[in-house]
Amino acid sequence: MQRALSAIFSREPFSASRNFLITAIFWLVFGTSIGLIASMQFTAPDALAGVAQLSFGRLRPVHINAVLIGWLSMGYAACMFYIIPVLVGRKGIWSELLGNITMVAWNVMMVVGIFGLLNGDTEAREYAELAGTVQMGSTSIQILDWIVLVALLLLAVNAWMTVMTGAEKKWYVSIWYFLGALFWFPIIYIIGNRAFVQLEGLNDAITGWFYGHNILGMWFTVGGVGIMYYLLPKFTGNPLYSHTLSMIGFWTIGMFYAPTGTHHILQSPVPEWLKSVAVISSVFLLVPVLTVLTNFFMTMKGKWHTATEHIPLRFAIAGGIAYLLTCIQGPFQATRSINWYLHFSNWVVGHAHLALLATFSFFVFAATYYMIPKMTGRKMYSKRLAVWHFWLTLYGWIIMMLSLTIAGLVQAAGWHHGIPVDQWVIELEPYWIIRSISGVMIVLGQILFMFNVYKTVFSPEQCEELPHSPTGVVYV
Ligand code: HEM
To answer: Range of 26's domain?
Structure first.
């Protein structure tokens, strides 16, 4: 117990990054398993009937919050707390203790939030469901919103102080992206959560989707690109292709992402000018996207073959290709006529998994396989398990994507030809079964991933030591 507490509230360099990562992986396995159970309810809707906590309407937000706020966001915090100090020439972040306290607060918030969601306590806004509602007289307060906000501010303070107190004063581009993400996310979070902004009707939908899309654009995209701009040169030994392009990308993401959220509600009576701004800025997103992709693929030049042996690079390449697909699909389905056809169909769920599973989760997988050996001074427990993790997740995702995309087209055709739902919904059953099979593969992949990481961290005697640098340090 004493040892566990001192590991959790440690001041040791990189302990906050390690602890964020270890707990993030727990939320990944939990969240994907809940997604799998939810997916099975499409074909066996009565299997868990009678248990309100396990109904689809409750499991869906549990799945989404566990994978987005638990896994991915905490994974990003881990990456930032490893990469920023290394880039500014510090041994660890400004305050590891504060980083670890933030990590504990984040996990407590997740546990309370998940129990709340299972029991029907939700803000009912996409990606902002975590509530923790406390009734005080006639007013209700969402305490979890406050905890997340404080945690985000503590992350930002720690990151800024690390940069300010580092020996290296010239900022590598990843630092711009991380500090940008940590600047924008708290602002977006305040606008998107009911503890801070409460509006009625359409205004609520508009701010809800301002948040819903910007958590993807200004947090997951900006943070994910920052991670890859650090990792790719490390993996390939090539310098980043163009610093200028990366900075153009940084500022244009900021310019074009902000008004895109309304493209989620094009089929609702929001003002037409707002819809037009959302559609146009969605298409203009191709500008920052092209900067990222050019940098990505040009930095890879001459090094593609190394991915056969280099597992983290494999994840990075797969994630980069998924990013390319996401950015072709996104602006395409944001245009009015395509959106009119595909909206309210499984196509959109496929798109969400393309971005958040195949792109950003793969970036964090790549980072994990890179950082864990550096932080522990040991090779990963098993390369074979890492390879299995890669193929199970990749094939699982491809099968999921195909099944949801085809199901989406069938569903959209049903809507638009005015065919009664009970007739076309039967046609979707095979695709939903295939989606659950893909879910089994993905969950299995994540269990292997968790086992591999935990073995490396907690069973040092079973892992091969890495050679130390002349200064005796492995992790920088
Ligand atoms: C890291 C992995 C994953 C991430 C980041 C992720 C993310 C998401 C997101 C963002 C949504 C909301 C989609 C939308 O609003 O359109 C979603 C929905 C969903 N996901 Fe996942 N997911 C992951 C893995 C899985 C797995 C393994 C399964 C198992 C089959 C799964 C099943 C589902 C289901 C059933 C829904 C609800 C779809 C609906 O409402 O029709 N997810 N997921």
So the answer is: 1-170
DSSP string, 72-119: IHHHHHHHHHHHHHHHHT-SS-S-HHHHHHHHHHHHHHHHHHHHHHHT
Residue 398 lies in a domain: no
Phi/psi of residue 425, each to 5°? -65, -30
- Please answer whether residues 196 and 222 qualify as being in contact, where contact means their C-beta atoms are separated by less than 8 angstroms: no
Please spell the DSSP secondary structure of 383-422, one letter per residue: HHHHHHHHHHHHHHHHHHHHHHHHHHHHHHHHHHTT--HH
State the pTM of this model.
0.96
Give distance in angstroms: CA of 31 to centre of ligand 1.
9
Q: Say which residue the tokens 């079964």 belong to.
A: 433
Does 240 score more than 70 pLDDT? yes
Q: What's the mean pLDDT in 99-112?
A: 97
* CATH code: domain of residue 110: 1.20.210.10
CA of 399 to the centre of ligand 1 (A): 14
Count of CA atoms in the C-beta half-sphere (13 A) of 49: 6
